[in-house]
What does this fold into?
Amino acid sequence: MTATVGHGEQLWSRCDGCEALLYRKRLRRNLDVCPECGSHVRLGAPERLRQLVDPSSFAALPDRPDDVDPIGFVDVLPYPHRLVAARAGTGLPEAVVCGTATIGGHPVALAVMDFRFLGGSLGCVVGELITRTAERALNDGVPLVLVTASGGARMQEGALSLMQMATVSQAVAALREAGLLTVSVLTDPTYGGVAASFATNTDVVLAESGARMGFAGPRVIRQVTGRDLPEGFQTAEFLLRHGQVDMVVQRRSLRARLLVLLAAARSARADRRAADRRLVCRPEAVQLMPRQPAAVSAGHSRVGLTALSGPATSDGPDGRVGGDGPPGRLSDVPDGRAAASRSDGVRGDGVQADGVQGDGVRTDGAQAVAVQVDGVRAGARDPWDTVRTARHPGRPTTLDYLDTAFDGFVELHGDRLGADCPAVVGGLARLGDRYVMVIGHQKGHNTAELVARNFGMASPAGHRKALRLMRLAARLGLPVVTLVDTPGADPGVRAEEQGQAAAIAENILTLSSLPVPVVAVVTGEGGSGGALALAVADRVLMLQHAVYSVISPEGCAAILWPDSSAAPLAARALRLTAPDLCALGIADDVVAEPEPAAHGDPEAAGELLRRAVLANLTPLLDVPPATLVRRRRQRFRRYGAARTGGAGATVGVVR
It folds into this structure.
């Protein structure tokens, strides 16, 4: 149905569901729900707030972040021009309205997305605002309510928009650890990166009647599978039947359902406070207590004893372990080289001990290799050529690297829920003298292998297998190494029925809290949320000819250009190469490849990867679990837009 508008609107509206002609005032009195067929009109954020919160209780968050254009994106229009048009069309500064309010007298922090603003897309400012809302909920000790309406991550901000999935998810994880209720309300439509993160990793997920939600949209699924979609596919009722939401709620009942949830949470929190007060009053309780690192549902690898008022552990300003210098180095480091200071005054990460980066050359005996990642690079390749190299069928797969870079791999199968996805492999292996848990996407080298492995596109079972192995690693105290090479998560009908979005969301949330070191390596394609599901890590490495992007160049071109033939232009605009990702602060190291690329000498590529992983993992091994988690969260917290003092700054661009 055509959405209602404000002053100056026409007196009549035609319902898109039943085509009835409706008096608009009558429609508004019925909360913008057709009285004839029950079809729900899409609401803008201001009207949604008026329907949900107590009158005059909403207070917007102060200090909206400054605009960002982190990659200077231009398609047929420059990105800033699109922002100006969206503001003129909606009267809103961004695609979300955030603040505090009361619902039935219960205080909440809430964020309400508005699909009218660039399709409710998740960009750096939107991610920053929702994260601030979650942090406000944590600070105030109140529940968080998220109302989602989005087509996914914002392509015009490249991989930084993809990072917002992790940034917001870890803020939700902090609320989970604090015992504060989080609720998402799915409205029509909720897709892509929003569906695969904070829309589905909250404590309770409500779906408004008429809402549609999924990781991949219907058009994409039809194009990929060539199949007609089942009737009612991805609707609220479909989601309920497949166990992906807690309830489907008519709009007239939505406020009442939220009120019940908020009342229950408030009562339980009051009971916990009373129990805590009784515990503190007992003399035997004021002793030593176990120090708990940030929670992970699988348990913790190490638990020590500490006094209640023990000293805090200091971290670098950007959350990097050991205060590492700027990213963008080419990793070609021999075994055993740690990041600790050396007698020559240079740390093992190639940064001088006084904090000034050297000449970018790392030496190993007589061999020296240099790569510059900002500005014009010597011998720079066209990004579209890099995309094609990353997809080369001869490129080493995860199983190839397990054979060349690791020793004694023992594969562990299955998600323990009835399936074993062949697109994800994982298990125990030795790296040097240490066991690690290795998890990676598996493609293949010929058509039969690619089909058998679903082209490296993980199903929900694949993500849940990875999740099981992450949690096992946490219980055993083993570091996790992930190898990322996927065009994206499986976009099929069955994947949607089995909860693809929620499976990705849970992986992202769990990795943000995993109390063991995590090193991720993008070895080929790093495609969207399917890649991020294995890449929320302490260190993120990229092979020299790998790519990492919020969307494929072909998909971006089909949406923002006249047709998909503009894919080479989109590849250049998306800033998806390894040097680009280092310049943006998303990747830490570029791992050298043998000439002409990894597929030319897989054995040498495996050795280079082994050295790089060892060099980046070694400094993490002695970091306490709680500090690891805190630094990892600091890392992803900076991928957004923030206000520093009186001036705007783009967070996450490290040069």
Residues 251-280 form the longest helix (30 residues). The chain has a mean pLDDT of 82. The chain has 21 helices and 25 strands. The longest strand covers residues 182-191.
